[in-house]
Amino acid sequence: MASSQGGIFISFEGIDGAGKSTQVRLLSDHLAKLGREIVQTREPGGAPGAEDIRRLLVEGEPDRWSPETEILLFTAARRDHLERKIRPALAQGKVVISDRFADSTRVYQGATRGDLRALVDDIHDRVIGVEPDLTLILDMDPNEALSRGLARQSGEDRFEDFGLGFQEKLRAGFLALAKKNPARCVVIDAGRPPEAIAADIAAAVDKRLP
What we know:
This protein is an alpha/beta fold. It has helices at about 20-35, 50-60, 65-90, 100-110, 115-125, 140-150, 165-180, 195-205; strands at about 10-15, 40, 95-100, 135-140, 185-190. Helix 4 (about 100-110) packs across helix 7 (about 165-180).
């Protein structure tokens, strides 16, 4: 996905409450000091249409959508995000840092809400067709992460409301995904102080910079 001008696409993944937003910000600060131009973004969302879809997905009752419907909504938001923000930024040589991308759909809908991974992968290949250059998976104890996520009281806690068992399945799903994609995925111990986590992330990213 990296452009010829030196753009690079980095995604952060992990269970709810693992500290992705904090680490996105800290990595952006680190890369800005190196003189890189940064675009911070998130999924679902990142573009006007995708943000509209986000509200449909992260608010409301846990059983608001079937897993199949969620896959279609997430993919629609991702396509809008890719067209309007990610590809233009990479073409300009910028570093795109996204809080979640397609791996979340693979794990959340494909692996934990029914045996739908083949459907997720098929739709991704047909409609999205790209992967990040580097994916940082923040790994931590699901119970602690769930407590953090619910404490935020953000109003976007539909997936946290599925409970601890769901978060444990998510963690296992992300670790399995990292094992299958070692060239792209780096697992980071997120159960430590933010500064220590950020140092490991910076080291992993610096190796990949064009």
